[in-house]
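Reopening this one. Same input as before:
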Amino acid sequence: MSLVRSTLLAAAGLLAFLLFWEAMPRLGLINPAFLPPPSTIPAAFLREVSLGIWPEAVLSSLSHYVAGLLAGAGAGVGLGLLSGMSRPFESFTAWIVRLLRPIPGLAWVPFAIIWFGVQPSAAVFIIAIGVFWIVFFATQGAVRGVDRDLIEVAQAFGFRSPLARLTKILLPAATPGILVGLRTALGQAWMAVVAAEIFGVPGVGQRMMQASSLLSTDIVVVYMLTMAALYGLFDSAFVALQGWLLRWRA
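Same output, byte for byte:
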């Protein structure tokens, strides 16, 4: 299938979806207060922008998103490398991981409020928790998946210290797997943003909750699409970075 044909089919599918969405409230099959037609979204967006609410909410959420992503991903990569390199450390933390891993991010919200108050740091904490486990397991698995023969050859050439093995062998070989985990974390972090802000921290999540309480569903959709667009932007930039970092595989 040619690229042009694939693009046309994708555009046709999107158009059909939008027409179906538009028709449902217009025909009275769905209450417009519950699901506004897409034709009302641009006006709602412009209204939010003109009032200064949209840029303020987006900038707040972006600051939480970036800080939480960096904190969670940094901790995940660091501990994932340590766990992947050291069997004793993996065994020592095995039951801690099994205890904490199943706890969803939302369950940490009460502690985030108690520890940090209704502050941006609480949102950053929730986002970091949501990101950490994805990156941790991706990094640990990538390190564990490095060919043992490669490590033995490296040791034969004098790379025997843990630091040398990490920088010369394990990290370069595990980078593709780590990047997969980081890319997944980009989306997970955006999903955590709403959960992190619904309890009152200024941002997109708070604005969505305010709008939903007033049945201003057109505004809710504006911020849903905003998050989708921002994720698409971050993901595209990350794919470009990933391609550059892994250019040696081409």
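So the earlier flakiness isn't reproducible anymore. For the record, The chain has ten helices and no strands.
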